[in-house]
Design brief:
Length: 346
């Protein structure tokens, strides 16, 4: 009997044999008609695979599970999982070959309805595109991938604050956040690297810390030179936690985008400022102080020079000397010509 019930399950099960290949599995339903439809569809697909050479149909969930297994090392894995949770509501049970342009447009509208920006939608679309491409090129599960166009993103300006604004912010923060904010402004470390910094990654004698390759976004180890202020900040944390540098009430600090952070920004009169903008602020201060972009790239652990070029427009002040030098030469020429004329006239 190809359709039956087991004693230990209320769902209908199927038993199919096609060209020597046997499959015995649950239909996932207690409805006999739905189970029969599932049985007939699966048997047809198996026949097409064996007799006609048609590729087996894979579900979106199949691709997601394999993607997650193959990208365990990915730095943005947590962000991927958040997007995949949203996508599961719309693509659960959908075959990969059924994902077309219309379905992608529907995903876009559903995501926009959650009041997110185009940038967030694009990160989701890039994930869908990456999974489908891998399913097609590497796994050979798909013959073709639908063309996925990204939404237009606004040109973002670099958000940074002045030293005076930073001082106002620090004064408004509770002690545990004050320390990690000041440290971030001294080092430019990303949030996860600052909160996850352990004592085993710090050498106060040599005045250096380091971020391991598996902790860095670029997947390359990052040396972090410590200023005198940064060393003082770290010394003040000694004895508060046995493993982590920054802690609160005996526990490592994990969440920083808290009510205390937001209220401190409000009291300091600072608007439209995120925690990650501390890193932008650090980089902007460096450039304005004359730090070469190639040096900033190494200090910040960016994997490409393009990531640092967005700060280049802030470095105009230190170029003023070259302009002055040009006009100083012109002034010398004028003075020399005046002197030569006076000599000839005499």
């Amino acid at each position: 009997m190809s359709l039956y019930k087991r004693k230990d399950s209320s769902q209908w099960w199927i038993k199919i044999s096609v060209n020597g290949r046997r499959i015995q599995k649950s239909t996932g339903t207690e409805d006999r008609q739905a189970a029969q439809e599932y049985h007939d569809r699966l048997k047809t697909e198996l026949w097409e695979q064996v007799r006609l050479g048609v590729k087996p149909g894979y579900l979106w969930q199949d691709a997601v599970l394999r993607w997650l297994k193959e990208t365990e090392h990915k730095a943005s894995r947590d962000h991927d999982i958040k997007h995949l949770r949203f996508l599961d509501k719309h693509l659960n049970g959908v075959y990969l070959h059924d994902i077309n342009r219309d379905m992608v447009d529907s995903l876009i509208q559903s995501k926009l309805a959650t009041k997110v920006c185009n940038t967030t939608v694009n990160r989701m679309l890039q994930l869908v595109r990456a999974i489908l491409r891998r399913a097609s090129i590497e796994w050979e599960w798909l013959d073709k991938v639908p063309k996925i166009r990204l939404l237009k993103e606004p040109d973002h300006r670099i958000r940074w604050i002045t030293r005076e604004e930073a001082d106002r912010l620090v004064l408004e923060l509770p002690e545990h956040l004050k320390a990690i904010v000041e440290f971030s402004l001294q080092t430019g470390l990303r949030r996860s690297n600052a909160t996850g910094l352990q004592w085993s990654q710090v050498d106060l004698v040599r005045r250096i810390a380091w971020i391991h390759a598996d902790q860095a976004k670029s997947r390359k180890a990052i040396p972090v030179p410590l200023s005198k202020t940064a060393v003082i900040i770290i010394r003040e944390q000694i004895g508060k936690h046995h493993s982590y540098v920054f802690s609160y009430k005996g526990k490592p600090i994990i969440q920083v985008n808290t009510k205390a952070w937001r209220l401190a920004l409000k009291r300091a009169g600072i608007e439209n400022f995120r925690w990650h903008d501390l890193r932008h602020t650090w980089a902007s201060w460096h450039v304005q102080n004359g730090t070469p972009l190639h040096a900033l790239q190494s200090l910040g652990g960016w994997h490409s020079a393009e990531m640092v070029q967005r700060y280049a427009h802030l470095s105009g002040e230190h170029l003023a000397g070259y302009v002055d030098k040009l006009f100083e030469l012109r002034s010398v020429d004028v003075e020399q010509n005046s002197y030569d004329s006076a000599t000839l006239n005499n």
